Amino acid sequence: MIKNILNLGDAALYCDFGKDVNRETNTQVIRYFKSIQKENIVSINNLSPSYNKLIISFDLKKTNFKDLKKIIENLNITNEDNLKNKKIEVPVCCDENFALDIVRLEKKLNLKREKIYENFFSKEFFCYMTGFIAGMPFLGDLSENMRAKRLETPRVKVPKGSVALTEQFANIYTFESPGGWNVIGNSPLTIFDSSKETNPNLINPGDIVLFKEISKKQYENYNE
Amino acid sequence: MSKNYFQVIRAGINTTFQDEGRKNLYHVGIPFSGAMDKRNYLLSNKLVGNKINSPALEFAYQGPLLKYFGNKINIAITGEVNFKIKKKDIIIDGNCYQSLNLENGDEVDILSTNKSVYGYLAIGGQIDLKYQWSSCSTNTKAIIGANDGKKLENEQVINILKLNNQSVEKKLNYINTKIENIRIIKGTNFDYFSDKGKKIFLEKEFIVSKLTDRMGMRLEGPKIENVIDTNIKSEGLIKGVIQVPADGNPIVMLSDHGTIGGYPKIGVVISADYDKLVQLSPGSKIKFKQVDLSSAENLFKLYDLETQNLISQIE
Questions:
Q1: Cα A204 to Cα A70, A110, A130, A208, distances in angstroms
Q2: Percent of chain A with pLDDT over 70
């Protein structure tokens, strides 16, 4: 449930679902997000669901903080399980040329790379949110022994398709972009496709992701 | 190639097609985009008799040099822009907020934006552009929108599918006012900062750095000290949010911003001041002034009324 609604600037509602980052809280956020989406409220410009927050941006010409807050507070949020979790398999090649930070990560985590990959590929991930850059999924949760901080100095360019870790999360760089996550491999799969306007993202909040290791050869011959 | 077109002789530094932007895609990771200075964008369209939300060319600092081929066409430039119209025998100094006609072979040379950043060139007619999610705004990071998601390039062509009937030259008396004071509302993490840090944020001058583009504006000045945590759990962003990362230098999110961020939000620029904010060029001074929500709402009403007034003066 929403604990508190604040204003973020003069044209957004900042809905706080509590401090914790876990699947339960995030599932609540996604439920609200989907329910509000269904209402098609014309004054709403954008919805930004994240781990434990939902930001609702609105058109200040059509409504204001007080009025929209009232509408949101009185909405009927369905409690039924409307998160149709899709299961998605994502192929990852861990060739040395792709695993840019594996050496660093071995040191940070004090784990051999075989163990890091074993942990990573045996895990089922949950998609908490998408964004930062178009389509980038924030996937959790890595076990305690797999959690590393970001790079001290972020890379100016992380290659497209990079699969990377930080703290309890994994993500996939859908474009070449600046970034500071620890890169352990690369996926040939198209995660964001702007030609699909109704659903450009392969992975959406609430989905389950499994990573599968592929060889360099399989990577090069990969055909979607 | 259509009958009426512009040849791009020089593309300019950052020239893109923009309209009002695209909505309801933050959750996918796609920002609003759209014209940075909305008022000047709307006025440019009105001056050439376009629908007010038609795509226009937005340029920054140095604009494009375009040569026109075809039947008489009406164009208008808004902002604070130095430009010239080159006709067969003469070169004319251009006036902003005044539509004019181009004939076959004429050139528009947009030299620079004067002590500002963005200017707009509206073309009286329908430009041949690709729409994605009901907007043709070019987002060069996500590679979406008009021109295959890219900036304008030298040697390319801009095709005009249909010309407007308007050939009268319209004019508006308007002066862009400059402000150094940008009004803000306290952000959701305002209390992450020390009393001294808060005081610095609200009282000291900052300088707009060179690391400023359509995504964000980085500011330099006295450091704003954080006493709680230099990171927050990643969450949504909106345009106008001022984040302060660990180095203590504020960054203001602009129209092409990343949709998720993990730095504390010290403030949010009010909607009424956004057009003025984006026009502050690197090296400009900026000072933040705190207002409450109801003042921000009233200031927006005034801003909107003034914009509507200007639009109606062009009838």
A1: 28, 32, 7, 9
A2: 98
**pLDDT for the residue numbered B310:** 97
Contact A10 B23 (CB under 8 A): no
Residue B30: closest C-alpha in chain A: A134
- How far is Cα A122 from Cα A118, in angstroms, rounded to an integer? 6
Interface of B with A in 186-245 (CB under 8 A): 187-188, 233-238, 240-241
Question: What gap in Å lies between CA B47 and CA B31, rounded to an integer?
Answer: 28
A94-100 mean pLDDT: 97
Q: How large is the average pLDDT for residues A42-63?
A: 98
pLDDT value of position A81: 59
In chain B, which residues have pLDDT < 50? none
Task: Return the residue matching tokens 């340029």.
Answer: B59
Which of A44, A51, A57 lies nearest to residue B234, judging by beta carbons? A51
Tens digit of each residue's pLDDT (9 = 90 or more) over A9-20: 999 999 999 998
Q: Distance between CA A208 and CA A53 in Å, rounded?
A: 20
Whether B27 contacts chain A with CB within 8 A: yes
Contact state of A194 with B143 under an 8 Å Cβ cutoff: yes
Q: What ipTM, to 2 d.p.?
A: 0.95
Nearest to B216 by CA among B267, B245, B256: B256
Sign of the CA dihedral running B123, B126, B128, B134: positive
User: How many Å apart are CA B216 and CA B259, to the nearest integer?
Assistant: 12
Nearest neighbour of A6 by CB, restricted to B142, B188, B236: B188
CA distance A17 to chain B (A): 12
Convert the pLDDT of each residue in A129-139 to its tens digit.
999 999 999 99
Question: For chain A, which residues lie within 8 Å of any Cβ of chain B, measuring from their own Cβ?
Answer: 6-12, 14, 21, 33, 44-55, 57, 60-61, 64-65, 129-136, 138, 174-175, 177, 192, 194, 197, 200-201, 205
Domains (range + CATH), chain B: 4-163 (no CATH), 181-311 (2.40.100.10)
Q: Which two tokens stand for residue B7?
A: 């040849």
* Domains of chain A, start order: 4-73 (3.30.1360.40), 87-220 (2.40.100.10)
